[in-house]
Design brief:
Number of helices: 5
CATH architecture of the largest domain: 2-Layer Sandwich
Strand order of the largest sheet: 2-3-1-4
Largest sheet: 4 strands, antiparallel
CATH class of the largest domain: Alpha Beta
Oligomer: single chain
Strand content: 15-25%
Helix content: 40-55%
Number of domains: 2
Structural class: alpha+beta
Number of strands: 4
Radius of gyration: 25 Å
Shape: rod-shaped
Length: about 180
């Protein structure tokens, strides 16, 4: 059997931000927040750590640049050295433009693929939306019991969230593993 969850749906981003902060202060476990667009300050209200994705992007860029420089050096100075107008075989300034482009390519593709893997996005995966309106114009807060508890009191949650003008507060059962 799945875990009992409370889903609260809101119409305004100020309400979802306040509800998330209140739920966190109350010690409830925030499973997820669904929004149709980016809500500034929501990550801080949820207590999320900063993303490590920029570091992943930086590392993929460095790997791409290093691989390209080694490949160009190997092809021009080791494998097939050609004397073109008396220029040196390992001319680093000639490698810079293409190295930059390959660095950007590796960083972009590597970051997107890493994001897909970490987020669990894959073809054929069904979306688990708590409310169909979250893809259009509503915001949803999904709450679970605190880690030390095994139940969540719906009346207490409704009272806590009532000042944030929820459109709907519903109880759902999660069938996803880990939730």
């Amino acid at each position: 059997m799945g875990q009992r969850l409370i889903v609260a749906v809101f119409d305004h981003e100020e309400d979802i931000r306040g509800a998330v902060a209140a739920a966190r202060r109350a010690g409830l476990s925030i499973v997820d927040v669904h929004a149709p667009y980016l809500v500034h300050g929501l990550d801080r209200a949820m207590g999320l750590r900063p993303s490590r994705l920029p570091w992943i992007c930086f590392l993929f860029g460095l790997v791409g640049a290093a691989v390209k420089l080694l490949f160009e050096y190997w092809t021009t100075a080791v494998n097939w050295p050609l004397n073109v107008g008396g220029k040196p075989w390992n001319s680093l300034p000639a490698f810079v433009p293409v190295t930059f482009e390959v660095m950007v390519l590796f960083a972009g593709i590597g970051t997107v693929l890493t994001f897909f893997v970490v987020a669990g996005l894959r073809p054929g995966r069904d979306a688990s939306l708590p409310d169909p309106r979250v893809t259009d114009d509503s915001f949803a807060l999904v709450l679970a019991p605190a880690p030390k508890d095994d139940s969540i009191d719906r009346e207490v949650v409704e009272e806590m969230l009532s000042r944030f003008r929820p459109v709907l507060i519903d109880e759902q059962i999660s069938m996803e593993p880990g939730r």
